[in-house]
């Protein structure tokens, strides 16, 4: 059984207490994580304070070189890390390996752009903008994409010259531990990065209670995001909050249904639908509704569900018992309010936190699953008649993250892009997050940017220099 440790001031350390990491496929403990106490957090903070000026002064080129080496080390160790991710969080091996690859690309991308993004901007002879590191960052990552989300926070923060304390997800520690170990091996000076686990509210209250922490970056639920924003308000710490989503898909009658259904199933049921960008509400123009429904039922029914360790399994379990309970509650509520069940809808009769691909049709807007983020392998299908109606239905939730549109009409594409709320609109494509583009949410999906140049700039303070004469 793996025994993870804290990484404090350049060394791996035990804490006084530990908690178990439970395999969602077997419900058995497969590892332990340390539970950091106040003394551990103070050590991480003291080291970050001690090192922040030196790291900020290190050249962007040197910092980039360390990130490049980190990517190489992570790549070398990725098959071992992927196996641990499969065991701890119930991802399939190909999902875990694909995610680790994207994490490495994220380190590489930030290494490539570090020098350019740390250079001053000369506006004219008398005015210059300097980009300084934002200071000490408290980073909080969730369990669903523990490799790529750790990379999307650590790589730009470190490249920009910030020191970072990472509180990674206790449910899925392997990827964060592997990333911090790779950074250490790649030559990050002691104290520049700390890694802690434990009691999340205690850790965030402790770290955000320190005026030395100047910024937080969090990916997780809207509820926790709001709590952290409230804590950060006391010391005016800058926030980047990547929160929940409830992605609509608008399928217009001129769309190519067969490839669309395949792409939706592939994207939706990746990691059992536990992705903030996963489609969850599908609105189909009435003339194609029956056809779409039938094809979706056939393709989704082919997905083999079971322990992620089994090679022929396409979809593993959900992270914990709350997942299947939430799916059951949302399904029962939708049925009680008039929806019909097309597929799934019952937990698997076996050990583990499994819920099968579930499709509900004719789901009324009053059903809880149309407003509450399902974050699981469940889809609501609803017919629409006009573009106006589709947009109105799509914009009904309090979230604004991702949305998808399937149509060949350029006019419809333009209208929809203009009128759909949220941070991303994807047209005729379902795509994972890339390192070179900024992601952001609106409303309950959060604020600030992650990824791309905007995501890098989030870790910088701008200083305007006005000068007359030499
Ligand atoms: P959660 O917010 O409860 O937990 C997410 C992470 O935050 C976990 O690692 C948890 O330990 C930590 N956390 C919980 N309480 C905390 C606190 N008080 N202080 C600091 N950290 C705390 O959410 P969850 O249900 O475990 O994860 C799924 C949610 O995350 C969904 O709502 C999903 O949409 C969201 N999410 C969003 C994105 C995005 O990019 N927008 C990506 C992945 C997940």
Please give the largest β-sheet: 7 strands, mixed
* Overall 3D form: globular
State the end-to-end CA separation.
65 Å
CATH class value of the largest domain: Alpha Beta
Low-confidence stretches: none
As laid out across the biggest beta sheet, the strand order is: 15-16-17-14-13-19-20
Q: What is the overall number of helices?
A: 14
Helix content, binned percent: 40-55%
What would CATH call the homologous superfamily of the largest domain?
Answer: Aldehyde Dehydrogenase, Chain A, domain 1
- The fraction of residues assigned to DSSP E strands is 15-25%
The CATH topology of the largest domain comes to: Aldehyde Dehydrogenase, Chain A, domain 1
- CATH architecture of the largest domain, by name, is 3-Layer(aba) Sandwich
Total separate domains = 2
Ions, cofactors and other ligands present here are:
nicotinamide-adenine-dinucleotide
Average pLDDT confidence is 97
**In angstroms, what is the radius of gyration?**
23 Å
Query: Which structural class should the secondary elements be placed in?
Result: alpha/beta
* Number of DSSP-assigned strands: 23
Summarize this structure as a short list of keywords or feature phrases.
Aldehyde Dehydrogenase, Chain A, domain 2, 470 residues, binds nicotinamide-adenine-dinucleotide, 14 helices, Aldehyde Dehydrogenase, Chain A, domain 1, 40% helix, single chain
């Amino acid at each position: 059984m793996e025994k993870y440790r804290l990484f404090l001031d350049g060394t791996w350390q035990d804490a006084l207490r530990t908690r178990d990491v439970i395999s969602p496929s077997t419900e058995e403990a497969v590892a332990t994580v340390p539970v950091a106490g106040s003394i551990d957090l103070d050590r991480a903070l003291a080291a970050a304070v001690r090192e922040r000026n030196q790291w900020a002064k290190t050249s962007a080129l040197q910092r980039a070189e360390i990130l490049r080496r980190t990517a190489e080390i992570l790549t070398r160790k990725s098959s071992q890390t992927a196996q641990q991710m499969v065991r701890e969080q119930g991802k399939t091996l190909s999902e875990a390996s694909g995610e680790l690859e994207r994490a490495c690309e994220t380190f590489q991308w930030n290494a490539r752009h570090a020098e350019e993004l740390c250079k001053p901007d000369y506006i004219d002879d008398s005015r210059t903008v300097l980009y300084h590191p934002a200071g000490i960052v408290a980073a909080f990552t969730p369990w669903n994409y523990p490799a790529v989300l750790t990379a999307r926070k650590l790589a730009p923060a470190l490249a920009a010259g910030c020191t970072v304390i990472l509180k990674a997800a206790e449910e899925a520690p392997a990827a964060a531990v592997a990333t911090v170990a790779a950074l250490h091996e790649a030559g990050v000076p002691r104290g520049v990065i700390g890694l802690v686990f434990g009691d999340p509210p205690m850790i965030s209250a402790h770290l955000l209670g320190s005026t030395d922490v100047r910024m937080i970056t969090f990916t997780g639920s809207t509820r926790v995001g709001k709590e952290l924003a409230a804590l950060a308000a006391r010391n005016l710490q800058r926030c980047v909050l990547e929160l929940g989503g409830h992605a609509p898909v608008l399928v217009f009658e001129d769309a190519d249904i067969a490839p669309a259904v395949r792409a939706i199933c592939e994207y939706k049921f990746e990691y059992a639908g536990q992705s903030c960008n996963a489609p969850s509400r599908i609105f189909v123009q009435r003339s194609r509704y029956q056809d779409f429904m039938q094809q979706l039922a056939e393709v989704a029914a082919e997905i083999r569900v079971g322990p992620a360790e089994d090679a022929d399994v396409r979809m593993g379990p959900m992270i914990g018992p709350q997942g299947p309970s939430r799916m059951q509650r949302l399904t029962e509520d939708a049925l009680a309010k008039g929806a019909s069940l097309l597929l799934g809808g019952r937990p698997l009769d076996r050990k583990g936190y499994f819920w099968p691909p579930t499709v509900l049709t004719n789901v009324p807007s009053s059903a809880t699953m149309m407003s509450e983020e399902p974050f699981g392998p469940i889809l609501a299908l609803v017919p629409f008649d006009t573009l106006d109606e589709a947009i109105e239905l799509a914009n009904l939730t309090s979230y604004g993250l991702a949305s998808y549109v399937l149509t060949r009409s350029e006019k419809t594409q333009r209208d929809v892009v203009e009128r759909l709320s949220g941070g991303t609109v994807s047209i005729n494509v379902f795509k994972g997050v890339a390192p070179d583009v900024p992601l952001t949410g609106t409303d309950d999906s959060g604020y600030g940017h992650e990824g791309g140049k905007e995501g890098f700039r989030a870790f910088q303070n701008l200083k305007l220099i006005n000068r007359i004469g030499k």
